[in-house]
Amino acid sequence: MLVVFYALAGVGHLYFIDAVTRIVPRWVPAPRFVVIATGVCELAGAAALLSVRWRRAAGWALAAYALCVWPANVQHAIQDLWSGTGLPIWYHAPRLALQPLIIWWALWASGAVRLNSAR
Hints:
The protein is mainly alpha-helical. It has helices spanning about 1-15, 15-20, 30-50, 55-85, 90-110. The chain has five helices and no strands.
């Protein structure tokens, strides 16, 4: 499921480059390049999750990635809510609130972090 999530996100970043570029915070240099790079990283991460050899590294990389794109998600929410030209709060609030869960999901699903069960 995580593979599908990141594969779809990667395709979305590459298909909707102009739309995604508009939500990149102003302090990020070369926003179009960054959007293309993030789409490629999502696709590479999804592919690496399919490999036993690269799965744990992909989990760590995708968790770090999700943390790094959080400011763009906040920027997107601010733009939409202040200008009234985009998606409503019912889209943004869950997206922002679930970001820590997405980070955890990447670590857990890849085996990068394991839960110890009580014995």
